[in-house]
Amino acid sequence: FQYDHEAFLGKEEARSFDQLSPEESRERLGKIVDRIDDNKDGYITTEELKTWIKRVQKRYIYENVAKVWKDYDLNKDDKIAWEEYKQATYGYYL
């Protein structure tokens, strides 16, 4: 179920939910459900849920790229050369 939590909440948010009491978890989930319900009709449609999951995943991708970029851009010039990529990925062996 951990992947489901991450897809629905995002990796960091899912991690924070693990630390909450059941009551706190329900309260925060209720607030998230309110944010998912775009038209505020009290129901979540499959389209609203798909939109939410896409938004969460997109945010995760952007955050992850920014985090990983630092590991690959070894000379910190905001570009990743093929040599930097190979070195960061495979080490000094190639």
TrEMBL record:
Domain of life: Eukaryota
One Pfam family it belongs to: EF-hand_7
GO cellular component: endoplasmic reticulum
Example GO molecular function: calcium ion binding
Keywords: Calcium, Endoplasmic reticulum, Metal-binding, Repeat, Signal
Subcellular location field: Endoplasmic reticulum
Segments forming domain EF-hand: 24-59
InterPro entries: EF-hand-dom_pair, EF_Hand_1_Ca_BS, EF_hand_dom
Signal peptide annotation: none
PANTHER family: RETICULOCALBIN, RETICULOCALBIN-1
Family, similarity comment: Belongs to the CREC family.
Protein name per the record: RCN1 protein
Species whose genome carries this gene: Irena cyanogastra (Philippine fairy-bluebird)
